[in-house]
Write a structure and sequence with these properties.
Blueprint (H helix, E strand, L loop, with lengths): L12 H14 L12 H8 L3 H13 L3 E4 L3 E4 L5 H21 L4 H15 L12
Antiparallel strand pairs: 1-2
Amino acid sequence: MVLKIDFNSDEAIYIQLRNQIIMGIATDRIREGDTLPSVRQMAEYVGINMHTVNKAYSVLRQEGFVKLDRRKGAVVSLDVDKIQAMEELRQNLDVVLACGICKNISRSEVHQLVDMIYDTYTRGNPECSGDEE
């Protein structure tokens, strides 16, 4: 598992770790059923405090990306609630798009960027192929 944590970033390390794991799932580098490293192993691998890893894993559990099992640890288990996921995506996009509009980024530039990013995360899943509406 390759993780890119920026220790100089203003973004909290547990959020960076969470985001890296989600991106790993989206690109199929991490698959459903995979067990993530133990809290201790991940902390040593990344060079961070175990409490930070525990917080990232807890957030991933709350968001439905992993299940915590006493014997296996954190196991990727996607709990898909599409309606809730769409609402969360809409809320996140609201601010991002407002920033883009303030910086004169056009609708077509946004669409082009979204398509480019989306294509990097389609995991061979026919439901992720895009053209559903």
